[in-house]
Amino acid sequence: MSGSPSVVVIGGSLAGLMQGIVIKRLGHNVTILEQHLSSTREGQAAGIVTMEHSHAFMNAHDHLKEQPYAVPCPGVQSLDKDLKVVGGFDRPMRMASWNVLYYRFRANFDGLTSSYCNSPPEYTPVEANKHGKAVYEQGKSVKNIKYIDGSVIVELEDLLDKTSGGRGSIRADLVIVADGSTSHIRQLLQPYLKHTYAGYVAWRGTVLESEVSEEAKNIFQLKTTLHATTHSYIALYTIPGENGTLEPGERLLNYVWYTNIAEDSLELAEAMTDSSGKQHRHTVPIGKMQKHVWEKQRALASRILPAPFAELIHKTTQPFITSIVDIGVSKPSFFDGKLLVVGDALCPFRPHVACSTNQAALNALLLEKMLSGKMSLAAWQSQVVDYAHLTRLQSITWGSWYQYGYLAFFFSEAKFRLAGYMSRLRKYWHG
Question: Of 55, 152, 184, 247, which is least surrounded by CB within 10 A?
Answer without folding.
Answer: 247
